[in-house]
Amino acid sequence: GQNIDQPTEMTATEGAIVQINCTYQTSGFNGLFWYQQHAGEAPTFLSYNVLDGLEEKGRFSSFLSRSKGYSYLLLKELQMKDSASYLCAVLDSNYQLIWGAGTKLIIKP
Amino acid sequence: DAGITQSPRYKITETGRQVTLMCHQTWSHSYMFWYRQDLGHGLRLIYYSAAADITDKGEVPDGYVVSRSKTENFPLTLESATRSQTSVYFCASSEGREANEQFFGPGTRLTVL
Q1: How far is CA B9 from the centre of its chain?
Q2: How far is A33 from chain B (nearest CA, A)?
């Protein structure tokens, strides 16, 4: 079966750095997405990785290792508005997105 | 309004009733999707559409029907609602199915009593 694992919840301090991990086992791989979802709102796109390595976009970076079936999202200089759920999703061989259950990130002052 | 909209935003219905959730996008995106989101689960694909008059099943299609007569609209119908269909439903659209991000509507919170 297809499986994506992320921690259920993480807590971090304002101004700090946090890394949210995602491991996957899917039938084929055509890329990995990270989305942000604030409570009661729709998911919004953060990043896309299809090749190994780090993609940096402002305070957010996303890393991919295809051989290990592993990705992480790195958030720097955390702000209170970063409190949200972070969803990892893999595009499988049928170009269907398989979603993880999401990691709820709590930022404390 | 530009973007992707869903209606209604909230709906309470009873078991056995038919319910239709509407989705409208103004970008002329080819692909449209319906997901449900339940606590403890990732987003699960119900149906998707590659173009007008082309639809296909996703992971959890049972009990749902879709149609796409126009590119911009993609309604989802629960033919006979069940309590297990209580969920938050998201519609999304994208230009393609490959490296394209999906844009999500605001969601419909459906409660089946």
Answers
A1: 12
A2: 8
Separation in Å, CA B13 to CA B34, B62, B109: 19, 18, 11
- Alpha-carbon B93 to chain mean position: 10
Which residues lie below 8 Å from residue B29, measured CB to CB, with a gap of 6+? B71, B93, B94, B95, B103
Would you say the C-alpha torsion A57, A59, A65, A66 has a positive or negative sign? negative
Q: Which candidate from B41, B45, B103 shows the least CB-CB separation from A101?
A: B41
- In this prediction, residue B77 has a pLDDT band, given cuts at 50, 70 and 90, of very high
| pLDDT tens readout for residues A10-29 | 999 999 999 999 999 998 99
pLDDT digits (tens, 9 = 90+) for B15-26: 999 999 999 999
Q: Check: CB of residue B80 under 8 Å from CB of residue B18.
A: yes
Best residue in A99, A103, A104 for a mutation probing chain B (most B CBs within 10 Å):
A99
CA distance A88 to B54: 28
Residue with token string 């604030």: A38
What span, in angstroms and rounded, lies between the C-alpha atoms of A62 and B107?
27
Does the pLDDT value for residue B78 go beyond 90?
yes
Q: CB-side exposure of B30: number of CA atoms within 13 Å?
A: 9
Q: A89, B42: Cβ pair inside 8 Å? A: yes
How far B106 CA lies from chain A's nearest CA (Å)?
Answer: 5
pLDDT tens sequence across B31-58: 999 999 998 888 999 999 999 999 999 9
